[in-house]
Amino acid sequence: MADNKFLNIAVVQHSCGKNREENLAASVAGIRDAALQGAKLIVLQELHTSSYFCQTEDPNYFDLAETIPGATSDFLGEIATQLNVVIVAALFERRAPGIYHNTAVTLDSDGRIAGLYRKMHIPDDPGYYEKYYFTPGDLGFNPISTSIGKLGVLICWDQWFPEAARLMAIAGADLLIYPSAIGWDLRDPQAEQMRQYSAWVTVQLGHAIANGIPIATCNRVGHEPDPSGNSPGIQFWGGSFIADAQGEILARANTTAEIITAQIELGNTEKIRRAWPFLRDRRTDNYAELTKRWRY
Asked: Are 227 and 268 in contact (CB under 8 A)?
C-alpha cells in the first residue's frame, strides 16, 4: 500500500438517462468535485455512461458497447492525470463481435489503465436480464495494483458472493470496491424494499468483517422506466457507502445524486486481522466441497 497512513476515498452517485454525454458529464463533475475534497481514489457506479438497459432484451443495446482501451477510458485517463487521482469506472465493453462484458477499468493517477475486472457473476432475473448482454468474466479475482494500493474490484451481483470477496482478500487486496446498479421493483411493498436494502448493506459489511478489509460501494439513483413497458421500471436506491475493516460505515449516501468521502486508515487491516484472525484459522484442508454446486 502507499506510504501515506490514510487514503481518502470518494464515491460518485448519480442518476443516468439515455444521453451518454450527459451521463459522462455527471460522472466527471463528480470526479472533479471529489478531487477538490481531497479524494485520491474515486469510484463510479456500474454502467455509468448509459441507462440500465438490461431491463429488457434488445439487440440494439449492443451498440452502446465500446472497446477498452477506447474513447471513454482514454478520456477518464486524461481526467485522472489532470487531477492526480485513481478512478474506477464500470463500462459496457465490446471485446469482439458477439463478445461483450460488464467491465470495470481502473485508471491510475498517471492516466494509464492499471487493470480490468470483468464481472464474474451474471444475474438473469426480472428487470436484470444481464446474461443476454454480458459474457461472464474470464480474468478471475485478481487485485489491481495502483499507485495507492491493490484494489479488489468487483461489480454489483458479485457483492452477494463471499467467495469473490475472500479470493480478492487472500490475493492481497487492500480494499474491496463494488460499482453497482441495484434498486427496487416499485410493485413491492415498502417493508419488502427495506428488507432488500438492509440485506444488501449487511452482506457487504459481512465481507469487510470476515476479511478485515475496507469496502467502497457505489450505486446509482433515480427511476428508470422499463423500455418494454412490461413493468413500472426500477427505482435505484442509491445508498452508496464506505466502510472500514470492522464493517463500520464511515459515510453513506441517501437516495439522490451525491458524493460521499471518507478517510481509510491503511494500517487498520493489520491491526484488525491480529485481533480477529479469521484468515489464520481457515480450514483450507476441508474446503474442497466449496467447488461443488451442491453437496447432495
From this structure: no
